[in-house]
Amino acid sequence: MRICPRAARDRLRFFAAVCGLAGALHLPAPAAGQGLVRDFVISGGLAGEAWRGDFTALAVPQIDSTERAVAWVGEWSANGVFTLFKREHSGLDATLDAGFRQFATGGFQLRNYAPREHNGLLETKYWHDLGGGRHGRLIGAATARIRAIADRPPMPLYLFPGYETYRLTAGYGRSVRNLEVDITVTGESADFVAPSLLRNLDLLDRNSMIVEAGGGRKKYLGTDSEDYSRLRFFGAYRYHSYPKQGPPAPRVDHAVGLGGAYELQMERFGLTVTLDVTRSRSSSSRVEYNAGRLDAELQWGLSEELGLIVSGALARKRYIDPGQDALVPGEEADNETNLYAEITRSLGLGVDGAFRLGWQKVETNFTGAYYTRFGGGVFLRARPW
Amino acid sequence: MTRVGALVGLLLAAAAPAGAGAQVTASSPDEYVQLLRDGYDEAKKRYELATLEVERLRKAWNQSLEEHTAARRAGDEDRARELLAELQERSPEKNRAENAWRTKQEDWIVAGKALVGAVDARLDLLWHLMERSVGATEYEGRYGDLVELLEEVEAELPEEPLELEPMPEVTIRSEDTPREIEFKARVIENRVAFYEELRKQLDRDIASLTNRQRREHNRRDSRRARNRFGDDAAPTGDQRYNPVDAVANREPIEVRIEEKKALRGEVVNRMEELKRKAQLFRQEAGGAR
User: Domain range holding A308?
Assistant: First the structure.
């Protein structure tokens, strides 16, 4: 079955046209201080992946009795970060990202699938320094993200469903006595593109409002040094409404999050650790839970040409009602652990090669159902400018 | 800068507040430079004293902190409490000293910039005087002293974002003697040497920033590769939001590299131009002998 409705493809085309127009508007205007391509990278790669597990996902249309599957994956992507205009105290930046991925699967009982994914992202961010920066910075950002997937396979090969999300963010930040404080308000609408035979996907549709405030200190490690460490604590209120979930009334979640992040950046070494705990309460008592997530990332420049990145995440969730045994679309799992390692090597001017290994385990507490994903691949990245 | 411009600059500088707001009045350009130099030396001395004081307080603070940690580890609660009270008592003094140190550093930089501006303007004026006064050796001596002072102050001050000052207009006048032309060639060559050092520094900066950029690119690429297709999005109901950074940061690394490269290009062009000019002056000096 194909899960790439015409509407989604049309929107992707529209999105691509918008990206192209933005690029066209940008390219011929290299006036002083404007029109700077900050980064542009084209990437291609080939990977092999193995999946296993007995996990059930309500939003996955097909069912297959196998608990083991494999896939060869080819992908192309492009990403650009542009400064559309920049003045002394204001500027407009844009990020464009587009990706295509084709799978060739094996190991299924019914048939082997050939999922295709298309992803696109456009983000624009406007910033303005108040009083020449003395009174802080205002920002406004708009983000559109679109994903389409065709021939989505059964479990255990879990691929995220297609969706469209639109997000608006307004924020303010300033330094007060060496403390960086900021507050952002974000509104987001997420529409999961459901084909007629899979209305379950509509249950994931979501409207959100997030208010996040944080404060921290960034310390440069020496006069005129680029090296710095930063410690930031933050608190957030997150409102999520699921208009298609109920009945009788739509599901509404209110979550409060607290967390902290530590970052150390040096010329050849970087470390980022983030801890976030969430207390989520809902109009539907079966989805009330407490959760915690720890993310860590280490970057190490082994030599001028060789770099290593290791990252991992540990996410745990506990429902308030211990008898919670009903699957909620998109929330079938409680725990996630992942680990990635990537070695990159410079192959020439603006060309890098990368070898990546990844492992992920997702599981439920109440039945012990799980799936794991393990894979590795090689990627080539070119920066033409 | 023309002679009139140099004079206007010097007069404006003389009328402007110098140092930490002090008004400087002088009866001659040299006296004005001297007054600013005195102010600079005084500000530098105050900054050095403040640095010593802050270092002393920080050292004592860190020592107490280490003792406090050791006492806690050893389970000596009484001693730990005593040291904590001591740390709390010292904290305001340390903060005051650090604030004073920052203020003194700012005063020192302001005084330094005022002095550099005045010396630059005075050098420009002297240059025109030397061009008009053939064989006036007293100007040459004064010129050399001021160049030395300029280099000394610029080396002492913390590094500022780089901008090239306008290139001095050096020409051969019909009445110039070979010795004078050679002197002008030497001045130009000194400038070339200064630019050569600047170029080397810029090369080091660019290499360091490029290393950071490479690591930053790898990091961005790796993150995007993971979340572009939702590989790190598991069905756990965990809505993750990357907050938009609302705090003003330094210029992006790409911009800083471009700025440094542009500056390097300008430095190299000036070096080439000045080298050609110095060579021409040497030839002229040889021909006129």
Answer: 6-382
